[in-house]
Amino acid sequence: MPRRVIYAALERKLKRAYKDRLAALGPAPKGVFWRNESTQIARFDALLHLVATVTPVANPMLGDVGCGYGAMLDFIQKTPRYQNFHYIGIDINRAMINSCKQKFPDQKHLFLVGKHPPSPVDFCVFSGTFNLCHTTDTSLWHEYMFANLQQCWQRSRYGLVLNLLCGPKTEIKNQIFYAERQTFIATASRMFGPTHARSTPHVAGDVTFLIAKP
Predict the structure, then answer these.
(1) 104 against 37, higher pLDDT
(2) If you average pLDDT over residues 101-124, what whole number do you get?
(3) d(CA 199, CA 205)
(4) Closest CA to 191 of 143, 157, 136, 138
């Protein structure tokens, strides 16, 4: 069976899960399967701090891939040290994008349905994008994740920044994907280039990765 067919089936399950969750719990951290707002914000801060540290431009353009209900833009707008960032939010889930447009009625143009930015950005960022997987096949999910990273790599001027839950081995538990830190680094380094990792402050088991273009 072609990979695109398998990937499309995965995405249908994901879109249904997130649509149902959003309908049940609304545009809130638990509405996108986050434990609470504090861990959501800690992940945003870790990603954006890393971008701020390595960016070669004064006002970097971010592509927030898997933007959910737009919480990262809200955080950027409320946090002075990140207000120089430009933003576009992308999600495969139309219900999520519609929620973003309702939340930011004057900035509807910043959100669109898709898997990657429509045009080049400085950095693509992924906050929890690959946590919920709706499969038990770790190899398939690993492959799907890197296929999506590859598409975004081609549209990023300076690199990718993402966070993943990590554990002692690559595994899926209760439909949540856990990466093995060194395995992810080895694969990303082989496919893209030098990959750096640091534990996400204040979020147990979470790791923030930077894959930077030379």
Answers:
(1) 104
(2) 97
(3) 8
(4) 143
Residue 124 · residue 117 · CB < 8 Å: yes
Residues 6+ apart with CB under 8 A from 206: 39, 43, 163, 164, 165, 166, 199, 200
Place of tokens 């080895």: 186
**Which 3-state string (H, E, C) describes the chain?**
CCHHHHHHHHHHHHHHHHHHHHHHHCCCHHHHCCCCHHHHHHHHHHHHHHHHHHCCCCCCEEEEECCCCCHHHHHHHHCHHHCCCEEEEEECCHHHHHHHHHHCHHHHHHEEECCCCCCCEEEEEEECCCCECCCCCHHHHHHHHHHHHHHHHCCEEEEEEEEEEEECCCEEECCEEEEEHHHHHHHHHHHCCCEEEEECCCCCCEEEEEEECC
pTM of the model: 0.94
Please give the Cα distance from 31 to 144 (Å, whole number): 24
Residue 34 has pLDDT above 70, yes or no: no
Summarised one tens digit per residue, pLDDT across range 140-196 is: 999 999 999 999 999 999 999 999 999 999 999 999 999 999 999 999 999 999 999
pLDDT at 10 over 90: no
